[in-house]
């Protein structure tokens, strides 16, 4: 009898161990196809002395020698995460509840610093004209706007058969043209974004300038005056998508909305519901995060203060608007042109975590005339 009990006990423990291993593997399994980008080549000595980086109104220039040296005793990353994680975040303009089609309406590179508990978010202009790899056998497509790479990569058109679908081709386009090398991706379509804002009860935004909204869907439009407002998901979507002053102020509006959404999600009333919100919406987003990584990010988010969430933009003077014939559209379209070597310098610094400089004062009140300055979320 005692031997039988031992056998049953060991059988139970072995079964539990096997189940535990399988559950842990599922916990680490990505929710979508991986990016699988090629290993980046070691970056060449920075050319920053040739292309000085000014940080908006701070007007600070860095040199390679100013990169902080690694301390003798390195702090451990928080929440069980890596030291740093680079994420490609996409706002898709797909109007359906899918990710088959849709352009990348918003493109952000996000650097999550688990050691210093900081978040840096860099806007990448969607209208930048770039080389698009891997799909030349479809209608000889080799170039286009940055936002088109996401459309060409998703399943709807069937142009791209590499890893990561739309985010995968967009990541490869960013890597080829600008040297950006994201580790993971997250894409959200318009319906899901609107529903997330509504699920948390709307958000409170402070608009430093008035916004007028008019579109084909809403020809009469409506206006939002400057000041404090409580808005629902539909209004948040309009604010994030409107191009009122120029293409760069739209990115600024998106940053204002994202700061407000972050503040609402981390408010005392919402925090207990965050795990349920994540579970509810994770199947409506396009991502290669694993449940383990989602928990790491949620854990870190609760420990980051508003001033440690910094939004950055390339200086507006680096870009010029020109006309370009797009053979896919069979029409001339407006694009942004820039020296990509300069943009590579910025992105290299961004991925190293030394730009935007965390030690500088960051403004918290963006305005249409100051679109190239970095600013941080308010607490």
Strand order of the largest sheet: 11-6-1-2-3-12-15
Number of helices: 9
Encode the helix/strand succession as letters.
Answer: HEEEEEHHEHEEEEHHHEHEEEHE
| Helix/strand structural class | alpha+beta
For the largest beta-sheet, the strand count, sense and barrel status come to: 7 strands, mixed
Features of the shown structure:
379 residues; alpha+beta; Aminopeptidase; 7-stranded mixed sheet; 20% strand
Overview in brief:
It is built from 9 helices and 15 strands. By secondary structure, the protein is an alpha+beta fold.
Question: How would you describe what is shown here?
Answer:
By secondary structure, this protein is of the alpha+beta class. It has a domain at 48-60 and 77-188 and 277-376: Aminopeptidase, CATH 3.40.630. The chain has helices at 2-28, 146-153, 165-178, 190-199, 233-241, 247-265, 274-281, 291-301, 340-352; strands at 84-92, 104-113, 118-123, 129-131, 143-145, 184-189, 203-207, 211-213, 222-224, 227-231, 286-287, 309-313, 320-326, 331-337, 375-376. A 7-stranded mixed beta sheet has the order 11-6-1-2-3-12-15, with helices on both faces. Strands 4-5 form a two-stranded antiparallel ribbon. Strand 8 and strand 9 form a beta hairpin. The protein is globular, with a radius of gyration of 22 Å.
Task: List the topology elements.
Elements lengths: L1 H27 L55 E9 L11 E10 L4 E6 L5 E3 L11 E3 H8 L11 H14 L5 E6 H10 L3 E5 L3 E3 L8 E3 L2 E5 L1 H9 L5 H19 L8 H8 L4 E2 L3 H11 L7 E5 L6 E7 L4 E7 L2 H13 L22 E2 L3
Parallel strand pairs: 1-6, 3-12
Antiparallel strand pairs: 1-2, 2-3, 4-5, 6-11, 7-10, 8-9, 12-15, 13-14
């Amino acid at each position: 009898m005692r031997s039988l009990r031992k056998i049953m006990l060991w059988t139970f423990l072995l079964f539990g161990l096997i189940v535990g291993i399988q559950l842990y593997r599922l916990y680490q399994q990505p929710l979508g196809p991986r990016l699988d980008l090629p290993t980046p080549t070691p970056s060449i000595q920075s050319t920053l002395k040739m292309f000085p980086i000014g940080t908006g109104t701070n007007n600070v220039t860095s040199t390679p020698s100013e990169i902080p040296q690694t301390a003798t005793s390195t702090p451990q990353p928080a929440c069980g995460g890596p030291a740093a994680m680079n994420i490609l975040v996409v706002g898709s303009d797909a109007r359906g509840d899918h990710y088959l089609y849709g352009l990348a309406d918003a493109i952000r590179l996000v650097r999550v610093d688990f050691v210093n508990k900081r978040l840096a978010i860099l806007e990448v202009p969607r209208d930048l004209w770039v080389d698009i790899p891997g799909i030349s056998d479809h209608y000889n497509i080799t170039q286009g706007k940055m936002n088109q790479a996401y459309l060409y990569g998703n399943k709807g058109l069937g142009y791209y058969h590499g890893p990561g679908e739309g985010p995968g081709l967009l990541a490869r386009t960013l890597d080829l043209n600008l040297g950006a090398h994201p580790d993971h991706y997250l894409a959200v379509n318009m319906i899901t974004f609107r529903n997330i804002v509504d699920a948390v009860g709307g958000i409170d935004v402070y608009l430093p300038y008035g916004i007028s909204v008019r579109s084909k869907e809403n020809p009469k439009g409506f206006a939002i005056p400057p000041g404090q407002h409580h808005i629902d998901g539909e209004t948040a979507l309009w604010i994030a998508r409107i191009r009122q002053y120029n293409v760069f102020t739209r990115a600024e509006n998106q940053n204002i909305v994202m700061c407000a959404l972050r503040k609402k999600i981390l408010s005392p009333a919402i925090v207990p519901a965050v795990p349920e919100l994540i579970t509810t919406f994770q199947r409506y987003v396009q991502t290669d995060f694993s449940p383990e990584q989602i928990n790491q990010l949620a854990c870190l988010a609760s420990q980051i203060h508003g001033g440690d969430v910094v939004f950055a933009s390339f200086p507006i003077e680096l870009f010029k608007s020109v006309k370009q014939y797009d053979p896919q559209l069979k029409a001339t379209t407006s694009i942004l042109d820039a020296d990509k070597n300069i943009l590579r310098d910025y992105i290299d610094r961004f991925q190293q975590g030394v730009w935007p400089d965390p030690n500088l004062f960051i403004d918290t009140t963006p305005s249409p005339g100051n679109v190239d300055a970095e600013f941080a979320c308010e607490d």
